[in-house]
Amino acid sequence: MLHPVLPAPLKSMPDNHNPAVPSSADLQREVAELMIECLNLEVTADQIPPDAPLYGDGLGLDSIDVLEVALVVSKRYGLQLQAENAENQHVFSSLRSLSDYIARERAT
Amino acid sequence: MFGTGGEVHLWSAAVSELDDPDTCAEAWAVLPTGEQDHVGRFQFEHDRNAFLASRSLRRRVLSHYAAVDPGQWQFKVNEHGRPRIAFPLLDETLEFNCSKSTDMVICAVTRGTPVGVDIERVDRRVPGGLAESTFAPSERAALAAQPQNEQETQFFTYWTLKESYLKARGLGLSLPLDSIAFSIADRPRLAAQMVFSAANDCTEWQFALLAPTPMHIAAVCVRRPGGPAPRVVMRRVLPSSNSSKRGTPSR
Questions:
Q1: What is the set of domains in chain A, with CATH numbers?
Q2: Could you report the predicted ipTM of this complex, rounded to two decimals?
Q3: With 0-12 CB in 10 A as exposed, 13-18 as middle and 19+ as buried, what is B123?
Q4: Which of A43, A65, B134, B150, CA to CA, is 20 to 30 A from B42?
Q5: Which top CATH class is B8-249?
Q6: Chain A residues with beta carbon closer than 8 angstroms to that of B167
Q7: pTM score, two decimals?
Q8: Chain mean position to CA B161
Q9: Contacts of A58 in chain B (CB under 8 A)
Q10: Domain boundaries, chain B
């Protein structure tokens, strides 16, 4: 499976060594709805299992889809998802890990 | 012999061929249990079908080049997920690479050179801001100079070129997309050249662009230092048979 390369940072580089912040069910639902809207997915937020893969199998997103989600998430939450981040593969591995990443970055 | 002239065979199949129950059963039957399980892990039927079509195509295609039953091939992937033949290694020069769009799957085969291939539908929606945030400055300028109604097709032309290079090198999308840049000529034929690469390997890799249908764009990349663009021969796997027919060579 192709790895996503995320858009270049808008501001400073985030600290990659923060401990994980678990995301709430509300945030996971919000992120699921964001993905459904931007990718026109034919599911409801309840139908995206938090730990199912976003690409490779599961939701079946491809590299363009993942980049689009990265752009939308960056804009919505004011994050700096940067290119060449070794973490990207993990961040986009599931709805939960993406939501955890957002929760952690918002907390800093 | 195929491959000695640097030819690329590009095999294609329509995902809709699986609508025929016999074709679907045949595709399913060539997959080992692990790949059958993988099919079942997709949430949407259209993803299951495209994956099944792609995985059965690569097995049936490779069996055209070696006396191996389609179900017997074993593959290994590198750290970026690029598959190669692991067994049986009857011919270590045989290389392949596959790509799929929502409705079409393709498999490129070469001998003696790594190959990368990518296909997209040209009517796919281009995510807003994607070119601006990931393409090289020269590519963004070339896109902006296109008439509005051609910008989306041109976006996917650049996109498939970038993916074909990254897949030929086995890197996946682990390099920033703006670390390579292409120039595209429309006339006298659709042609592309890598004009910038952070790895400084522009002359090593050659590219071909083709439109398997009016709705698709595909890019093929091979390693051929200083050489000409690859000659691509389109081939079709016919449903419900192991035979093939020769298609129209690329432009």
A1: 25-107 (1.10.1200.10)
A2: 0.88
A3: exposed
A4: B134
A5: alpha beta
A6: 2
A7: 0.89
A8: 10
A9: 41-43
A10: 8-249
